[in-house]
Amino acid sequence: MPKTRGILESSLYVSDVPRSVRFYQETFGFHVIKEFGERGCAMHSGERQVLLLFKKGASQAIKSPHDGDGELHVEFAIASAEFAM
Predict the structure, then answer these.
(1) 43 - beta bridge partners?
(2) In degrees to the nearest 10, what's the CA dihedral of 71, 77, 79, 82?
(3) pLDDT 10s digit of each residue in the chain, 85 long?
């Protein structure tokens, strides 16, 4: 059985991409590594990890359509010592 080296990427579908980008930049220090125009962007979210932010409904018309809705969940591992700052 192959062993994983973590999760390479996670996708969130948001109503306001610029607002979501600001949140992840200001809260976690993530930075945008690739923009997808109106559809969204990719953010560096850790060593070999990417957080994809897509505008809800904006990826349904592409060659490999995808979208998400409802209660989605992403959890970031943060050492408790980071909160003592």
Answers:
(1) 32, 51
(2) -60
(3) 767 777 888 999 999 999 999 999 999 999 999 999 989 999 999 888 999 999 998 877 778 777 877 777 777 777 788 777 6
Query: Which tokens is 68 given?
Result: 């998400």
User: For residue 25, what is the enclosing H or E element?
Assistant: helix 17-28
The contacts of residue 77 (CB under 8 Å, 6+ apart) are: none
Here the tokens at position 49 are 């990890």
Residue type, 8: L
Name the token pair of 82. Answer: 């980071």
- Note the Cα 35 to chain centre separation in Å: 12
Does this model's pTM top 0.85? My answer is: no
